[in-house]
Design brief:
With about 425 residues, this protein is mainly beta. The chain contains two helices and 40 strands.
Length: about 425
């Protein structure tokens, strides 16, 4: 208020008749506010409510009786005075996942485990096992994030060959390459996980670490010693004798049960073999009965129901569509989102306006701001309104006023001062 307006107000109040007219509504307003506050306090003590947001702590609202009662919604648990997901509530660290700890009764990512090895060459990161660490591999290897296994650096950019391909390192005078094992045979082990040559299966064979022409040896009959097997394909790198058959890479009598009781024949990508009892086929490997084969081409096995595309989702996070959510997130409308930012199946990018449980919670759209009104009267203070950026003043009833004004109940409008002159009508807020 500037000096001139203050002087004008002082002259009006100084006159006795004006002073009585000025003080009477103020005094009446104060008494009314006090009575209203007492009435509200009485309602609060009696536990009266209209919705869950009007009830404290872990209580919910019985809308028929309009009374706060004990209990959390289904799937939640009372933890520290709040209703939270049951798996996030704890009394000790032992009740939390391996990469989490108990903080103030809540399971939260254990920062102390960040960087620690959790599976293969993977390490914990913010409560999840899935960050590859090249330091856990040999000097000439990298950590393959999709499988958690180390693989030789082969390409010019220092990356590994794709899954199912071997690294060919012919020496200093030639560039490295990748050998597709489905149609070729890596030959000549260098002792570091790489090979010196890639033999074309249709016309070459690997003998003594070198690719040589197949000559007249039928396909797959060549043994590891370079001998053409007369009785059928090589078995585990050797030739089977008369009256023998290849079973699980071992030459056995033809009448021996190949797969054994409960075994399963696997066609394989590069070689046929039998899965032992209690396992299922997954490309060139096998998975346990409690696992799923996520990627046969890459021989990737995951815990049951934890496949996300061709990779595994850690057991302590939520799967949402084709993504693994971060620790503490939920699946909201097929999108990973925090529980607070999820409203009616929609993940609000800018956050939800209003408290959890308020009936007027709303997602703001571009050009809107949140009006977090907080009136003591439950009939007014549901909160969660929005106003346009052009009218950033919010009233306690979810109405929007222009800047430099405020809503006056006595005037019923948006007023620039304490009087009712020059007031404008408010516009309803979004809810």
């Amino acid at each position: 208020m500037d000096g001139r307006r203050f002087d004008d107000l002082a002259r009006v109040v100084a006159h006795p008749s004006n002073r009585r007219r000025f003080i009477r509504p103020i005094f009446g307003g104060l008494v009314g506010a006090a009575l209203l506050t007492l009435g509200i306090a009485g309602d609060t003590e009696a536990g009266r409510c209209k919705n869950d947001g009007d009830c404290p702590g872990c209580k919910t609202c019985d809308r028929k009786k309009k009374k706060c009662v004990k209990g959390c919604p289904k799937g939640k648990k009372c933890c520290g005075g709040d209703c939270v997901r049951s798996d996030l509530c704890c009394a000790t660290a032992a009740e939390c996942k391996a990469c989490a700890t108990c903080v103030d009764g809540r399971c939260q990512p254990n920062a102390a485990k960040n960087g620690q090895q959790c599976s293969g060459c993977l390490t914990y990161n913010n409560g999840a096992c899935g960050s590859g660490d090249d330091e856990l591999c040999a000097g000439n290897e990298r950590c393959r994030q999709s499988t958690g296994l180390c693989c030789p650096k082969c390409r010019a950019d220092g990356n590994c060959c794709p899954v199912g391909q071997a690294c060919i390192n012919p020496g200093l005078l030639s560039a490295n390459s990748c050998c597709d094992s489905s149609a070729n045979t890596p030959c000549g082990e260098n002792g570091d996980g790489t090979f010196s040559e890639c033999c074309a299966n249709f016309n070459e064979r690997c003998v003594g670490g070198e690719c040589v022409p197949k000559d007249d040896c039928p396909n797959r009959r060549l043994s590891a010693a370079g001998v053409c097997c007369p009785n059928g394909p090589a078995c585990g790198g050797v030739c089977c004798g008369d009256g023998e058959a290849c079973c699980l890479g071992v030459c056995q009598g033809e009448d021996a049960p190949c797969c054994g009781a409960g075994g399963t024949f696997c066609p394989g990508l590069t070689r046929p073999y039998c899965a032992p009892p209690g396992q299922v086929c997954c490309g060139d490997y096998t998975c346990g009965l409690e696992e799923d084969c996520c990627e046969p081409q890459g021989n990737v096995c995951c815990a049951e129901g934890r496949c996300v595309g061709s990779a595994c989702c850690p057991p302590d996070v939520v799967i949402c569509g084709n993504s693994c959510c971060e620790f503490g997130e939920i699946c909201c409308g097929n999108v990973c989102c925090t529980e607070y930012n999820c409203l009616n199946g929609t993940c609000c990018a800018a956050g939800v306006c209003g408290d959890v449980g308020a009936s007027t919670r709303v997602c703001p759209v571009p050009g809107q701001i949140c009006c977090l009104t907080d009136d003591a009267n439950p009939a007014i203070g549901n909160r969660g309104y929005t106003c346009p950026n052009s009218t950033p003043v919010c009233s306690n009833k979810g109405e929007c006023c222009p800047e430099s004004t405020r809503y006056s109940q006595s005037c019923g409008g948006c007023c620039p001062d304490q009087g009712c002159a020059n007031c404008t009508s408010p516009i309803p807020g979004g809810s």
